[in-house]
Amino acid sequence: MNAGMYHEDLSPVGLYIENSKHLAPLQTGSGEGNFFMKPNGVFGLSPDGLPFVVTTEAYALSRMPTSFASQSGPMLVIDGEVHPRFEPDGASRYTRNGVGIDGQGRAVFAISREKVSFGKFARLFRDVLQCKNALYFDGVVSALSDNDSIIEGGKYPAGPIIAVFTKPAADQ
């Protein structure tokens, strides 16, 4: 799944950490577009593999050690509340993808199969997936693959991506 917004050269717009290497810096400034709709946020993994979704401001203040991270925006759900700028079913409708952290501390990834508003997509994370915090990754370019085929989207090149693998057994 694509994991955030990117520049024309496919480099990440904001923070990007891979294998504990900071490849792009945290962006705390203002600008145009969804990425800068505050609060925006960071999805990441701690060194022990625990996933998190936090606002950019919280991440900047935390100095938390991070093995993998991608910054995007806007946040969809913040501490159990839908982003304050979202209308319940606004006119801006696109295929959308994002990530949230459920009540068991698991990362939950979702992509819409139809064009949806920010409000409807945020409520999916809050009300159906039971995520206290969730982050929007992208819209028109959203894509999901199962390694064998494209399940949704895939019409555009992608910048940062999230890949999920089965962790090998300790004795292998």
* Tally of alpha and pi helices: 2
What is the percent of helical residues?
10-25%
What is the strand tally?
12
| Strand residue content | 25-35%
Structural class designation: mainly beta
Keywords for this entry:
mainly beta, single chain, 2 helices, 172 residues, five-stranded antiparallel sheet
Notes on the structure:
The structure is a single chain. 10% of the residues lie in helices and 30% in strands. It has 172 residues and is mostly beta strands. Strands 2-1-5-3-4 form a five-stranded antiparallel sheet. A five-stranded antiparallel sheet has the order 7-6-10-8-9, covered by helices on one side.
Brief digest:
The protein has 172 residues and is mostly beta strands.
Topology record:
Blueprint: E1 16-18, E2 21-24, E3 41-45, E4 51-55, H1 56-62, E5 68-72, E6 75-78, E7 81-82, E8 97-102, E9 107-111, H2 118-128, E10 131-138, E11 144-145, E12 150-152
Antiparallel strand pairs: 1-2, 1-5, 3-4, 3-5, 6-7, 6-10, 8-9, 8-10, 11-12
